[in-house]
C-alpha cells in the first residue's frame, strides 16, 4: 500500500504504469480533480517541460516552465521528453490529534511523470502531481548523483489574464522577514513576494500559491520576472547556493489553491493533505490550550526583559500570574526575560544568552512548587536573537531544565534582521543566513524534533513560514510569521483595521498563528495615540479567538485589565482552542470574514457548542448569517458579544453589548459590526 499509516483509511486506490515510446515527442498528459473542475496538464512540447492549469474549463495558469540549474551539473531545462507516466488515486480520511477539524478528507488523483534528457540519457527527474477539488500540488523527485548544488529552481507560475488580476502580498527577502502589512495591488505590481500569495482574476476565481512539506530545502519566494510570470526564487545560503543535497531529493510540494470565492481558500485542507502523517507516535502529551503571560507589560514599557527595578520576570509576579491563570481556567503562564542575557540591547545579545541561568529574582523551583499547587504550568521561552549556534550548544540542557520544571510548551524566538541569522560554521567562521533558507529550515525542524524527545511542544516566533508540518510533527503547535498584536504596542505603525481580515486569507492559509489576541485596554497611551494602540473595538478582540486559528491562544493583556471587564473576559474563558469542525461562512480578502467552529469532543466530554467570530476592516457593515451549520433538533442559547451602539475603534472601542437569545439551525442572525469591529458568539447547546 502506498499510503501506510494507522490513521489512514484507504477507501480506493488504483495505479497503472504507462511506458512511452522513447522517441515520441510533444507528449502531453492531464490529471483532473475528483470533481473534474480542475485540470493539470504537463507536456514536453519542443522538449521543454511545461505545465498549465484550467479551472472550470478556463485556463488559469498559462504554460509554465519546470526544471533546475545546478552549480556542478548540466541544467535540467530543455532537451527533455516524457519517458514514462504512472497514475494513482486516493479517497481516504485521517484524523488530526488536535486542530481546526478532527477529520480531514484526502481525495485526489495523482500523476507521476518522468522526464529524461534526449542526449544524456542519465539525466532525468520526475514530477508528482496531486489534484484535489480544492487545489493541487506538484513536487520534483530527483535521483542523480551530480545534482547536489541547486542554484535555481525554474518553476514558473504564469498567471492567465494577469493584467486584470488583483493581488494581496508582502515583500520577500526584506529585513523584517514576514512582518509587513499586506499590499493590495494589481497583480503586476507584486514584484517579489512571500507565499502564501493570494490573488484573484477578473472572473472572480481566487487562488493562492504556497508550498507544503518544506523539509531540507530552501523556502520558495516568487519573483515576477515578466509581467504575470512568477518564478520560484529560493532563498539562498550565505555562499549563494540555493539548496545543498546529496543528489537524491524531493522538493516541497508547489501548491495552488483555487476556488470560486474567497472563502473556498479558507475551507481547504490542501496543505495538510500534502504532508506526511504523524512521525512522533503517541502525541497525547501535546496539549492545545490557553495561556497568559508576563509579556504585554514588557511590550508597553511597564516592565523590562532585562534585570533591574522594572524586571518583569520575578518569582513573585510569576506566582501571581499562575494563580490568576489557574483561577480563570488557563493552562499556563508564559514568562519571558527570566534568563541571563537580556541586559543591554537584547536584539543584539544572541552571543550571550544563557538558556539555563536565571536572574537572581527568579526561582524556577519555587515557581514549580507554586504551579503544581495551583494547577497551572509555566510556559518556557527561548529567545536566540538570531544566534542559533549559541542556542544549539545549550538546547539539550535548556529542554532538560524545562522538563524538570514541569514545562510542556516553549515559545522560541529568532529576532534578527532578515539575512542576519548568525551561525558558526565548521571552520569557526561566523556566517549570516536568512530565516527562510535551507540552513534555517533544518534548524527550526531540528529544534522541534529535539523538543519532542522531552515531550515539549513548540510555538516558534520569527519562524520559517508554516507549510503544514504540524501533521508530521504535531508538537509544532503554532508560530508567528506575520505582524502580531505586539505591533500595536510599539507602533511603527500599528496593524491597520484591515490587517486581521487580511491575515485570514493570506498568512492563515499556511497554518495556525500565535497572534496573541485579547487586548482590552486600547488606550494605554491614550485613545488619541495614532501609533501605540490596537486599532480595533473590544468585540473584535474577542472575535479574533475564533477567526485566527491557533491550538494555543494567549490572553495577551494584563490581568487587571481582564478583571476590569468581566463581561468581555467571560468569552475568552469560554472559547476553546481545539475544534471538531471549522467553516468559513463568508468573507472577502482584507474586508471581512466570518468563521463558525464546533468545539471538539474529548474523551467523555461531548462538546456540542458552536462558536462564531466575525471581523471587519475600517468599514462598519451588517452581515446576515444563516445558522444552518448548527445541529438540527438542538436548541442553543446564543451568547452574543457585539459592538455596542456608536462603537467604533477610534473614539469608542469599549462599547460592548452582551445579549442572549435562543436559536436553532433554522434561524438567521443579523450582525452589526462597527468600524474595525466584530462579533463573537457562543452557541451553548441546551
Ligand atoms: C518577538 C516575539 O514575537 C515577541 O512575542 C517576544 O516578546 C519578543 N520577540 C522577545 O522575545
Ligand atoms: Ca515577532
UniProtKB/TrEMBL annotation:
Record-annotated Glycosyl-hydrolase 97 catalytic domain positions: 295-482
Source organism superkingdom: Bacteria
Keywords: Signal
GO MF terms, alphabetically ordered: carbohydrate binding
Pfam families reported in the protein's UniProt record: GH97_C (PF14509), GH97_N (PF14508), Glyco_hydro_97 (PF10566)
InterPro entries tied to this protein: Aldolase_TIM, GH, GH-type_carb-bd, GH97_C, GH97_catalytic, GH97_N, Glycosyl_hydrolase_97
Ribosomal protein recorded as keyword: no
Signal peptide location: 1-26
Coiled-coil segments: none
Residue intervals of the Glycosyl-hydrolase 97 N-terminal domain: 31-277
Domain Glycosyl-hydrolase 97 C-terminal oligomerisation per the UniProt entry, residue ranges: 578-684
Keyword field contains Signal: yes
Protein name, per record: Alpha-glucosidase
